[in-house]
Amino acid sequence: MPMSAGFSRRVTPVLREAAEHFGTPFHLYDEQGIAATCARFNEAFSGLPYREYFAVKALPNPAVMEIMRRHGFGFDCSSLPELALARGVGASGADVFFTSNNTSREELAAAVGQSALINIDDPAVLAKLADHLGGSGLVDTLCLRVNPGATESSDQFLGSPQNAKFGIPPSRLTEAVNSARELGVRHFGLHMMVASNVLTTAPLVRTLDILLGLATDIRERTGVEIEFLNLGGGIGIPYRPGEQTFDLPALGRALRDRLTGWAAERNAVLPRLCFESGRYITGPHGVLVTSVLNRMSKWREYVGVDASMSSLMRPGMYSSAYHHITAPEARGRPSRTVDVVGSLCENSDKFGTDRELPELVEGDLLLVHDTGAHGHSMGFTYNGRLRPKELLLRPDGTVELIRRAEEQELDHFATLRFSPDRMSAPSPARPVTGTLSEVTAP
Fold this sequence. Notes:
This protein has 442 residues and is an alpha/beta fold. It folds into two domains: 252 residues, Alanine racemase (TIM Barrel); 123 residues, Lyase, Ornithine Decarboxylase, Chain A, domain 1 (Beta Barrel). It is 31% helix and 21% strand. The protein has 14 helices and 17 strands. Strands 1, 10, 11, 12, 13, 14, 15, 16 and 17 form a nine-stranded mixed β-sheet that branches. Helix 3 runs parallel beside helix 10 and helix 9 runs parallel beside helix 10. The chain is globular, with a radius of gyration of 25 Å. The N and C termini lie far apart (69 Å).
């Protein structure tokens, strides 16, 4: 949806100067807005044992991650570079939740070395962890990611988890807990994320209910108390004008009631509540700033800009994805219905179709809203269109470069320069002799 009034008020005085100083395109993030959302998140769950682990994949930039650290957030990581970024801002041990899937031995070793909270996605990964640890007892806390499978018709808002590649089926949780205990694990948590970009509280409350039911079952079957529950990062933001904003205080109240009631009924310790939000924390506080290159009339009306899908993949990747677009310097001109497009050799390289915008000319600035999460981080370099720079708008009005734009020689062609390396040709195969029975006999 359109950026907040506060973000608009802060960015308007610096927009043209930033474009001329740094050059477009660029993603611009609002530090004051991000900090305010962090504070609201903490306030919504005050009084509960709780921690937010910012999903690094949403905006993997140390300058932004430092804002999270100041508000007590940890980091949810799913790869070696993300672990390195968390380590770079001083996060280690329980500050880091390592939630990966189809995990490699190298990634497990790095997570163990960083003393991260490891979230196991499958018994095969648990077996790899057992091989790595070799009875060392280095991991005493473990989280198990759950895939609940098909749910009742009343739970259709959860989607179709049985078709997802993530998580352990409930029928295998007892086996996983017992296997982990043999490794020396003494503290357990459960994780489940089957809701994505939701704007109502019901899917997340239902997620908690399912996890609490599984925690009860595990306690009865194994005697293990589940000490923390991670509800994932499904809290959404309203991309389209007119969509409702997520009621975070209402979610806090609902989850508090569920948790305290469950714990009192079973005489259990209140489990710690965890989230791995990314979109909600930073999404509304970023814009992609791009300049008009060409105004074109074909079978449709087009505005071509100097950013491409390589700068913001969501509209091209997801057919239902929407990002609001405005032209703040062109207010008052007659409006036209246009498609806003980039320069990739792909017809899906569009930021918006059938948008009512002022009549635009070369050099005008466009703002693509809500790019503070899964914007730059999902970028790519197809067609040689390189990823843009990132800027941070500080509360005092200064604008800081926090990631330079990729360059052709320094970045794009860098992997074409390497030391010669060639595998020797294999030796000629020895001819096979003898009868068929002799060749195939064991």
